[in-house]
Design brief:
The structure is a homodimer. By secondary structure, chain A is an alpha/beta fold. Chain A folds into two domains: 3-10 and 259-355, Alpha-Beta Complex (Aspartate Aminotransferase, domain 1); 16-257, Type I PLP-dependent aspartate aminotransferase-like (Major domain) (Aspartate Aminotransferase, domain 2, 3-Layer(aba) Sandwich), CATH 3.40.640. Helices cover 39% and strands 18% of the residues of chain A. Chain A has eleven helices and 14 strands. In chain A, strands 2-10-9-8-5-3-4 form a seven-stranded mixed beta sheet, sandwiched between helices. The relative contact order of chain A is 0.18. At the A-B interface, helix 1, helix 3, helix 4 and helix 8 of A face helix 1, helix 3, helix 4 and helix 8 of B.
Chain lengths: 356, 356
């Protein structure tokens, strides 16, 4: 068996197999998505995610096919004409591109890969209706501090703000009194197979969608008012990925039993081990120079040796790490730091990297 | 363990657990969706579905989140201004409603639930660009014969035609020289947990999408040109439901080993047993009067007893059948007839229904 330190799909959480077995033996793959049994399952997952991420009742927790689908649904729902995007890597860029795909006018503030944003340096264009931020840019390992995201909203209280927490949730401690919408997928830090996007979204976004709909399309499939209405009954508009919703509920429950504070502390502890190593060890260096902008969940290292050689050497020891993204494919490594890999496994990885 | 005769989610196919176990032990939930290992898995599934449904190379086979998502993507891709829908139940109605949701002008020819269409009675409006048909209307148990769908296209060669085969594939033997696009989901006749929609679509639809894009949005997420381009490399634009794609490939391979002709014959044989029973047995009668329009995969029966009583009695014997849909919830039963349930299991169900 290999240990995956790849940034998604990633290592599966240790309890995954047990929960999957219970799903199968309970024949939950066959139950109707309009049954009370399903509604109870759905409600359980919503409750566990709500506790884990401290989401107030002002926000719905909705289930879609993927985080990418949620990019589109956020833009449909929250942007009549103009959006604004902080872009510093491939995924924040894709969110921006989606706005064009829906014929919205998209503004951006762009920085090179490896650099991050603070609230002070951001001026949101006057007519932008939505500020799109990426808490953790998976392609470059840059994180925008939660405090800076909160400040950005406080500076722009009349704009809606969206936070991509795809490859960091449940690490960021977002204050949902300030955050209108956020979203993640389950194949990253939740340690589950891909196939589900989770959309946290408040009533302001719902009202905005209802107002936009008077004049423009807000989408037909999984549009926000329909998702919202169904969620009040613990249902989804179409047949959902029941297996993924069940598994997410169980993993979130496991996380809650550990406690999100402990999980966050462990994440920081493991990240510190990895950054310390790549800072000091010859042949490696951190890609993100500014310490405050370094991701705690996706650590990106420059490597003097071709990344393929390092990856191969590590693989021989039963561990899988990721290449750099795009233009950095061969000169960087990406190492995921999710709850599924323990401190001991990270120490083991570092030991192996030391010998490369 | 219960046997599910519900029309989706449905009984899981007998080999499902074995394939799932192989997915888990092979750690396929952690592999990168940009790796050769993934591309091989993806290609295998496409090949098996292509063989099973006799899909020529002119058509791509694409993976999305659900069949409902595909309704939207077909309308985005194939309709600049006007669509035309044959509506005779809740699911064909939803396809029609989606067109409104995208601000298209949607025409419909409507019949009451329980009635079906022939090509001769359909006149497609002059400016409609796409004809939307439903091979199997899951809500009412009405089937449109494949020969009639083919004739409809032959009568209207300049229109695109879409066929919803959600709750019937692989039963209908569509001629893809005539059919521009068709789609299904895996929680029906493929006997898998929900979470994947499969879109079969030809180059004419691609060309149309590229032309529409000059002036209108064709969607940002999973838009056809992006899906198509990725599929040439056996990839998807975003992280897909790898588990479901893997399982579909394995079930399609199992189906191919049995042979699609045998599967279709068995489906007809089981349907005949069920229709014969509900025609003759006091207290039951077929909802669909016209024999030629009766679904082979979702059998709908009127019941004199309240449906809840029948369902309860059957459940005590370890079998689950569905209620009627919408207004017919308490006066009808819906019995799925998919490959996951054998002739013997259908005979067993009939025995139990005889005693109710």
């Amino acid at each position: 068996m290999q240990t995956f330190f790849t940034p998604g799909p990633a290592q599966l959480y240790p309890t995954f197999e047990k929960h999957l077995q219970n799903f199968v033996s309970g024949q939950l793959g066959s139950i109707s998505h309009r049954s009370q049994q399903y509604r109870d399952l759905h409600r359980f997952t919503v409750e566990q995610v709500r506790i884990l991420l401290n989401v107030p009742e002002t926000h719905a927790i909705l289930f879609l096919g993927s985080a990418s689908e949620i990019w589109e649904r956020i833009l449909f729902s929250c942007v009549e004409l103009e959006s604004f995007h902080l872009v510093n890597g491939s995924f924040s860029e894709k969110f921006y591109d989606y706005a064009h795909g829906l014929n919205k006018y998209a503004h951006k503030l762009e920085k090179p890969m490896g650099e991050g944003f603070t609230a002070a340096e951001v001026t949101v264009p006057e007519y932008a209706e939505l500020i799109c931020t990426t808490h953790n840019e998976t392609s470059s390992g840059v994180q925008m501090n939660v405090a800076e995201i909160h400040k950005l909203k406080q500076k722009n209280p009349d704009k809606l703000i969206a936070v991509d927490i795809v490859s960091s949730a449940p690490y960021p401690d977002l204050d949902f009194k300030l955050i209108d919408t956020a979203f993640f997928s389950i194949q990253k830090a939740f340690g589950l197979p891909a196939g589900l996007g989770v959309w946290i979204v408040n009533e302001k976004c719902l009202k905005k969608a209802e107002s936009i709909r008077q004049q423009y399309s807000i989408g037909a499939h999984n549009n926000l008012p329909t998702l919202w209405k169904n969620s009040l009954n613990n249902e989804t508009p179409a047949t959902p990925n029941v297996m993924a919703i069940y598994l997410l509920g169980k993993i979130a429950e496991d996380f809650n039993q550990i406690g999100v504070k402990t999980l966050r502390k462990e994440t920081e502890q493991k990240a510190q081990l990895l950054y310390k190593f790549i800072e000091k060890h010859k042949g490696f260096s951190p890609f993100v120079k500014e310490k405050a902008h370094r991701s705690q969940t996706v650590i990106v290292a420059n490597t003097e040796l071709p990344s393929a050689d390092v990856i191969k050497a590590v693989k021989e020891k039963g561990m899988v790490i990721g290449t750099g993204y795009g233009q950095f494919k061969s000169s960087q490594l990406r190492i995921a730091n999710f709850p599924a890999t323990s401190v001991e496994q990270v120490q083991e990885l570092i030991k192996v990297l030391e010998t490369v």
